[in-house]
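so the lab meeting is tmrw and i was supposed to have these ready like two days ago... anyway. pasting both below. for each one the top line is the aa sequence and the line under it is the structure tokens. i havent really looked at them closely yet so no promises
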Amino acid sequence: MAMILAIQPDSGQASALRHALRAWAGAAVVIVESAEAALAAIDQQKPDLVLLHAFMTLGDETRVVRHLRALPNAGRLQTLLDVTLPLALPGIITGMVLSFARGLGEFGATITFVSNIPGETRTLPLAIYTYTQVPSGDESALRLSLIAIAVSLAALFASEVLVRRATRRIMGDDPEAGH
């Protein structure tokens, strides 16, 4: 039988959570109230699924996630899919929505106040827009859209590399820092 470990500091909600998880998943459910208890339960009971409380402090959440990542059967890809992406998903979705809204705002401002003069005021979004307005321009619009996506992903990757490097230096784990 599968086993679910849930971290729920509110003992009043623990019973309802246990009942809901049993009914939904048909699994054994263990509920603990703290990160320390969760770490001990992970080592002793080897749960199939660990549910973190939404309002855990970042330090507690980080300790539990790092502990899970250190387990022998926690491969990098599996950890990415099961732990990292679900934790990052709200931020990723928020970033996508805000980026889309920002892009629409810039597109609207540019086309309204500067116009779309080929060779003078053309931006990537305006070029994509122009190609979608002419017959047989869809292929060019798609090509420019793919270029925009590639540039965005490259910028995101570079940002992530720089943030990780800075975090390692701050935490004292960077061999390049010359400690």
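ok protien two:
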Amino acid sequence: MKKNNLLHVILMAFLAIVLISCTHLFKLKVGFSTLIINVTYTTEYCMGMRPTDEMLDSLAKPRPYVGKKLYLKKGITNDTLTPILQTLITKADGTIALPDLFPGKYYIIDEDHLHTKNYGKLQDIQVTDQACINKWFKKPLLNFEVKKNIKQHLYYTINFHKSCYKGEASVPCIRYTGPMKP
């Protein structure tokens, strides 16, 4: 009889723990949020005959950035030690959707912000201000916060400007010193 009572107490304790765990998960679920990022790009005129005003306006108009790779990290300031939570790639309409984010502070970076580089050692690049580069590296493209116990729908837009020159052109505080591209 005492064995049955002990078994009953252990079973009840186990069920209580399972129920408390499920309740805890349910409370977290209530706080989940959805993030939608619209990723666009603009371009500049790259040599040749003088374009019409309509052509220049068209280049300056944001378009969906299809296949752009971005990275989700937790925190507010970018550094190489913070692990990547998720690699994100924009869809055909230039958007990224992240459902069910847990409460916390997050940020988004691109490939240029993944690793620090010594730009001064790159061929055809002149560093104009190293402190400026360091500040740029630490600043994410987007910071956002998912609040506890509030279901949020967060919408943001990130625009990239594509330069005529490839490579490090998106990094501020450096100057391309190489030959002009044809």
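from a quick look at the 2nd one: The domain at 32-117+140-171 is CATH 2.60.40.10 (Immunoglobulin-like). The longest strand covers residues 33-43. will dig more after coffe
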